[in-house]
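sry for the spam today, last one i promise. struct tokens for design, 288 residues
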């Protein structure tokens, strides 16, 4: 029986992949300078302009997806009798997944048959996107809903995220670090390295001095931790720095031979938190 894959706009997949796999998307919203914008995977959202505003020092806030939005999204498939898998943004980073679960409970009170599986990917950005992409490939190849749910649950903690933030002052503006830490970090040219842990929470992993060293750190850690590379893609995400993403791709290909490497910019929801210049590498490896 056919089924529908749904994810949210924090997966940051390129629009062409969303359309290729007929993924349905639940959209986050972003507020910048008092104006609310919809993260629509680049259909109408001007990411370049948004990234430049971040580069100039503007800050943006994001809002979790509410229960009503999930009800509207899921209800259509319930009424059609079409099974659904929802692959959601880490519950440690947003309350959105809880909203999805509440929406499912409300639908189960209204309808007799609700074939809806909600999965916490414990991932974000193109780490979530990589898991969704490889799940979509398996669906495209004919994997059943039950088998795909099992595969995702069995493999989701094998997806690694290596993240560096270039604009440490952006973390201060967003209230994520103190002014003192930001000033010292800027003077020393410190670049934080962040990962997602087993719970799907962003945690500090290391600090290096200088942009080139931070990019090399991501490359080295990816090479060290990658597994079964010939069967999996590597994703590289960035905020307004495609030339750095190309550099990382070239250096990775000198050491490893993944099935493919896909480069894509972050969506605005994630970029609002990382700031301009952030870059990440996502790959399949040993369980976190």
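last one done:
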């Amino acid at each position: 029986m056919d089924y529908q894959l749904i994810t949210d706009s924090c997966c940051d997949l390129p629009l062409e992949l969303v359309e290729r796999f007929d993924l349905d998307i639940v959209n986050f919203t972003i507020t910048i300078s008092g104006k609310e914008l919809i993260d629509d995977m680049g259909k109408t959202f001007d990411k370049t302009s948004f990234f430049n505003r971040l580069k100039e020092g503007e800050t943006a806030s994001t809002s979790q997806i509410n229960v009503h939005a999930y009800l509207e999204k899921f209800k259509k498939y319930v009424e059609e009798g079409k099974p659904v898998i929802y692959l959601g943004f880490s519950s440690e980073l947003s309350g959105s997944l809880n909203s999805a679960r509440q929406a499912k409970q409300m639908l189960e009170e209204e309808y007799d048959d609700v074939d809806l599986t909600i999965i916490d990917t414990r991932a974000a950005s193109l780490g979530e996107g990589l898991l969704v992409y490889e799940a979509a490939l398996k669906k495209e190849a004919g994997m059943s809903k039950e088998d795909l749910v099992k595969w995702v649950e069995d493999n989701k903690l094998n997806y690694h995220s290596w993240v560096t933030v270039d604009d440490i002052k952006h973390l201060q503006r967003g209230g994520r670090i103190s002014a003192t830490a930001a000033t010292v970090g800027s003077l020393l040219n410190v670049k934080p390295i962040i990962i997602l842990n087993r719970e799907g929470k962003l945690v500090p992993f290391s600090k290096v001095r200088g942009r080139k060293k931070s990019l090399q750190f991501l490359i080295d850690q990816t090479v060290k931790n990658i597994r079964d590379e010939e069967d999996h893609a590597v994703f590289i995400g960035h905020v307004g720095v495609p030339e750095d993403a190309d550099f990382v791709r070239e250096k990775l290909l000198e050491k490893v031979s993944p099935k493919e490497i896909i480069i894509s910019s972050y969506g605005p929801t994630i970029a609002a938190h990382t700031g301009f210049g952030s870059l990440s590498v996502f790959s399949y490896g040993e369980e976190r």
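Residues 158-284 form a domain with the Hypothetical Protein Tm841; Chain: A;domain 3 fold (CATH 3.30.1180.10). ok im logging off now
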